[in-house]
Write a structure and sequence with these properties.
7-stranded parallel beta sheet; two-stranded antiparallel ribbon; 10 helices; alpha/beta
């Protein structure tokens, strides 16, 4: 199993960190620094997480510093927020909160039912053209929506809900695998599976590690982003990269 994946022009470890509960505290600022030092490949946030505190915490921890992780954020979640003027305002706020002049990976958080996806993605293409976004991503999208967006700008990553118990986005994942697009499953540890605990015990691993190992085996383009505020859990999640599932074990879980 490959331990890294190429996102744009960078090769990064295939375990990330979700930060939708990251409040702005000195302890959490230090936690983000230590998580990156531990080896997470991607720190994922969004304009709306904890009312903006998540982005500000990551900015305080990593803004202006040399570090190895990709920082990803998202905008345009609510109805009407895919309009160009709203998306531009959220983008500018994210740049300020993250204390940076460019965002490594910026997702359209949701396709706005009131705004054609082409209009929303055109804003991200504009910011990419001027260097304020390095890579463009999409979240909770169909294959058709990915293809529409790719007509306007290269799509580096797709973030959809996906885990061992919820595989409703198999078609999008398979499309991304063929196209070389990084697929970032959120809620990667959700879902039950009868064989999960038995196989985890056989490997001396936790159920969570086994759920991540299954995802990592499912496609070489997958980069899960389990959320946690515990450095111990971050290290445990990264250790899932060392688990090799046999063909028989993968088939049982699949």
């Amino acid at each position: 199993m490959t331990r890294t994946v190429r996102l744009g022009d960078r090769e990064i470890p295939r375990i990330g960190l979700g930060t939708n509960r990251l409040a702005e505290t000195p302890a959490n600022i230090e936690f983000i620094r230590q998580a990156v030092e531990a080896g997470v490949g991607l720190v994922d946030t969004a304009h709306l997480y904890v009312g903006g505190s998540s982005e500000r915490t990551i900015g305080a921890a990593l803004g202006g510093r040399e570090h190895g992780a990709v920082v990803a954020t998202k905008g345009g979640f609510d109805r009407g927020h895919g309009r160009p003027e709203v998306l531009r305002a959220q983008l500018e706020q994210s740049l300020a909160s993250l204390r940076t002049d460019h965002i490594d990976l910026y997702y359209l958080h949701r396709v706005d039912p009131e705004t054609p996806i082409e209009e929303s993605v055109a804003v991200l293409a504009e910011y990419r053209e001027r260097g304020a976004i390095t890579n463009v991503g999409l979240s909770q999208v169909t294959v058709e929506q990915i293809e529409k967006a790719r007509e306007i700008v290269p799509i580096a990553a797709v973030q959809n809900q996906y885990n061992i118990g919820d595989r409703g986005w198999d078609k999008a994942l398979d499309y991304c695998t063929r196209a070389g697009i990084v697929f970032v499953p959120f809620y990667p540890l959700h879902g039950e599976h009868q064989a999960l605990r038995d196989i985890a015990q056989d490997h001396g691993a936790t159920d969570s590690q086994m759920a991540l190992a299954w995802l990592l085996r499912r496609s070489p383009q997958i980069l899960p982003i389990p959320g946690t505020l515990s450095l111990e859990h971050v290290r445990e999640n990264i250790a899932a990269l060392d688990i090799e599932l046999s063909d028989e074990e993968f088939a049982r879980l699949s």
